[in-house]
Amino acid sequence: MKRDRLVAHLKAKHNAHFNSDLNSFQTLKNNFEKRVTLKSLFTARNATVNRTLEASYHISLFIAKSGKNHTIGEKLIKPSISIFLKMVLGKDDEDVKSMPLSNSTVS
């Protein structure tokens, strides 16, 4: 768009920002780019949930292939993973606590 048309648009539609300097527009742009979007709600926060569900699926598949009861996941596997994360890797085990491996969920 030509400069004269941009100036006319700015004056007509955004008169409050007409005499603003470049820094204020850059701040507006940065705030716009950092805003929370619908896509960011589903990707950033739920990425952990998706990985947890995928891990739960694979563990349940191993349990089913071995022919064991699914209660072994809740009683043996989840505590084992929690201990491994805390002791060996030094990480928090919040994701493991939220992993659905109970018999009623998996069976």
Automatic annotation (TrEMBL):
Domain of life, source organism: Eukaryota
Protein name listed in UniProt: SCAN domain-containing protein 3
Lineage: Eukaryota, Metazoa, Ecdysozoa, Arthropoda, Chelicerata
